[in-house]
Design brief:
Blueprint lengths: L3 E8 L4 H11 L4 E10 L2 E8 L2 H8 L11
Antiparallel strand pairs: 1-3, 2-3
Length: 71
Amino acid sequence: VSGSTLIIEVPDRPGALADLAEKLGKGGINIEGFCIIGHREGLVEIAFHVADEDRAREILGLPTVYHLVNT
């Protein structure tokens, strides 16, 4: 399995997931899988599996994540 999983909070309202998916699709990002993992007042937490995490973060305006590797 290749790719990365992003965990994103979206407003708990009709169409919020569709809006996010449309942004990613227009940016050329395919959602390879997703799962709703949490819910709290006004927000839904969703895990998305995408092939290009950096591009998905850029499209959604999410901060860059730095991966530290022990050498």
